[in-house]
Amino acid sequence: MDSRVLAGIAVLVIIVIAAGFLMMRGGEEAATGTTATEAAGGAEAGGKEITIKVGLLVDETGPTSDVGKGYAMGAEAAFKYFNDKGIYTKDGVRVKIEYIKRDYAYKPDQAEAFYKEFRDKYGVIAIIGWGTADTEKLADTVARDKIVYISASYSAKLTIKPYNFFPAPDYSTQACAGIAWAAEQKPGAKLALLYDHKVAYSRSPIPAIKAVAEALGLQLVGDFDLSLKATEASAERVVSDAATKNPDVLWCGNTISSCSLAVKAMAKVGLDGMLLANVWGFDERVVDLVGDAGKGRMAGVTPFVYPMFAKDMGAKGIDTVMEAAKAAGFSENDVNLRFVQGFLNVWLLVQAIERTDSTALQEKGGEALKAALESSCNGEPFKFGGLTADDVRFCPDSHLAHKKVYVVVFSDAGSLEIQGPYEAPSQVDCVKATIQG
């Protein structure tokens, strides 16, 4: 055979062998979730990158969408920001979060269906969730499936569930702190309760409120059913009924739309008491939603600093939120309390990832995240640049993050003023009161 032909054959054999070796290497990289490009890009983090999947359950079209839309915006901005910035485990491996968003329109059965999709189709190890009824319904299931669930529901019942977390006091602890504030303003005040009797979120803190009111010497004068979907006319009917009891303080346990209608109705019927709303019933928008009717007549409980107050209070975490909002294409006006709430839930997840080992995260998923979150019990707390009323800790037997809130008052002058922080009174175990109630 001609020597040139032999040489050509030899070159061809070498090329085939080299190609086979490269294909084998590519297969190994794909199996570990690391490609040659990723390895090069992640060289500073040890040359490896992994991806985890996370569910995002929101209400953008249902009865709580008045607060749900802003929450979803904040959560999505956070996912984009931290992914772009780089999330690294404690052993230096970069983690990419692939999130799957579903709008369940505040329907618990639909939430359950989407949960099964998250788990069975996508294999998520964590979920950023929303409402009380659905989160409580799924709590035992996520524990069996070992999926960390960080919700916008702050139900007291979730603080004793092993896989449920949120970076705030529960609704009952928040309400107890708020009622204590009201008792300071007017000792012995008459208290009326306005909330949707059919909605789990609205009902959640009621047993604790009744217990703390009694302990603080307030007079409970009525329990009124204000629909989450109230109209101007129906809100006026409920408030007119409450006015017959001449309350000094009215607790509103709904979202901002119906709570705002209640305040307008108070002005219309001449009821001069103070309406104190839960965290979802009051935010920056009340000035426009309520107008003059709210001046000196409305306040809201919040475990988070409003963006408008953050710089004056030295809450540097707002710079991170604003930077993320800008990168996601949102304006400064889009960044309100709801945006912050969604952002902080994702930020908590990111901080938990940063406390995990990459091998544990890949092999144990939600279990590793749970351990990281509970490491704060006796270790370093979770911090959010001053945007929470206190540092956040979770213990294995209690996921009550802390016990402090602020109260934001719609002043006589028409401006919003933040007061506090205030701590829930020690006379009542507000979590226990709700669970037993």
Any key phrases for this structure?
437 residues; alpha/beta; Rossmann fold; 7-stranded mixed sheet; 6-stranded mixed sheet
What report would you give on this structure?
The chain has about 425 residues and is an alpha/beta fold. The protein has 2 domains: about 45-170 and about 315-400, Rossmann fold; about 170-300 and about 405-435, Rossmann fold, CATH 3.40.50. Helices cover about 45% and strands about 15% of the residues. Strands 8-7-9-10-11-12-13 form a 7-stranded mixed beta sheet, sandwiched between helices. The protein has a 6-stranded mixed beta sheet with strand order 2-3-1-4-5-6, sandwiched between helices. The relative contact order is 0.14. Mean pLDDT is about 90; it is low at about 1-45.
Q: What would the average pLDDT be, to the nearest integer? A: 91
Overall geometry comes to globular
Summarize the main sheet.
7 strands, mixed
Q: Roughly what percent helix?
A: 40-55%
Beginning-to-end CA distance, first to last residue: 95 Å
Indicate the topology.
Layout: H1 3-31, H2 36-41, E1 49-58, H3 65-85, E2 87-88, E3 94-103, H4 108-122, E4 126-128, H5 132-145, E5 148-150, E6 164-165, H6 171-185, E7 190-195, H7 200-203, H8 206-215, E8 219-225, H9 232-243, E9 249-252, H10 256-269, E10 274-277, H11 286-290, E11 298-302, H12 307-310, H13 317-327, H14 337-354, H15 358-364, H16 366-374, E12 404-410, E13 416-423, H17 430-436
Parallel strand pairs: 1-3, 1-4, 4-5, 5-6, 7-8, 7-9, 9-10, 10-11
Antiparallel strand pairs: 2-3, 11-12, 12-13
Helix pairs in contact: 3-13, 3-14, 4-5, 6-8, 8-17, 9-10, 14-16, 15-16
